[in-house]
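Justification of resources, computational component.

The compute hours requested in this renewal are based largely on the per-chain cost of generating structure records like the one below. Each record pairs the submitted sequence with a full structure-token output. That output is archived, and it is also reused by downstream analysis tasks.
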Amino acid sequence: MTGYVYMTASQKRGTIYIGVTNDLGRRMPEHKTGAGSRFTSRYSVQRLVCIYFDIADAIQREKSLKRWPRQWKIELIEKTNPEWFELFRGTGW
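The structure output for this chain reads:
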């Protein structure tokens, strides 16, 4: 089974959302249209900024990241995506 732990943000250093999915090509358009979750819809958290492909530990990794202090999450994102560029390019993942 494939799966992803992903982080979305409203803007650089803005509100952060952490989720897990087995279909990023389906999940990201849901977030962008407001159907992804109440949280991402309410706070416009639609910019994919960080992705992890470790399926074996995806759910545990998601739970762990959610407990991290905000500054740690920011540092993790900026380690691989310092400008917080949108990483989702549409379907075809």
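The chain has one domain: 4-80. The helical segments are 24-33, 38-43, 58-67, 70-80.
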